[in-house]
Design a protein that fits this description.
The chain is α+β, with helices and mostly antiparallel strands. It has a single domain, classed as Nucleotidyltransferase, domain 5. 44% of the residues lie in helices and 18% in strands. It is built from four helices and four strands; from the N terminus they run H-E-E-E-H-H-E-H. It has helices at residues 5-22, 56-59, 67-84, 102-112, and strands spanning 26-31, 36-41, 47-52, 91-93. The chain has a four-stranded mixed β-sheet with strand order 3-2-1-4. The longest helix has 18 residues, at 5-22.
């Protein structure tokens, strides 16, 4: 399955320009073949919270699960950390990835945990 790099870069550019114009707190997402990463940053670039499948909080359970299930747990972890930092409203930056699979799982679990986007 080939990725259309031009289309992905266009999605990245469009999403990030809107978030930058709104000066919103950004929940950014990234995935690789093995892991899922998420972080919340303020408009000035300061990182508020991070979570990934490599973090110690995630490794406590050490389960063999699908990437979508892992993304769901990462979404819940990032939402808890963001809420404890005092932020509830964020803008979701999916880094050009299409909204399905583990991207959707992370977003849905973060919404269920209390983030608003």
């Amino acid at each position: 399955m080939a990725v259309n790099v031009r289309a992905k870069n266009a999605r990245v550019k469009k999403t990030r320009s809107i978030i930058k114009r709104l000066e919103a707190i950004r929940l950014s997402f990234h995935k690789t073949n093995l892991h899922v990463y998420a972080q919340v940053t303020l408009p000035d670039g300061k990182v508020v919270a991070t979570a990934s499948t490599l973090s110690k909080d995630y490794k406590v359970l050490e389960l063999k699960e699908s990437k979508s299930a892992a993304a769901g747990r990462v979404g819940k972890m990032i939402a808890e950390k963001t809420l404890s930092a005092g932020y509830t409203k964020v803008a979701f930056d999916r880094s050009g990835f299409k909204y399905h699979g583990c991207v959707k799982a992370l977003a849905d679990s973060a919404r269920e945990a209390g983030l608003d986007f």
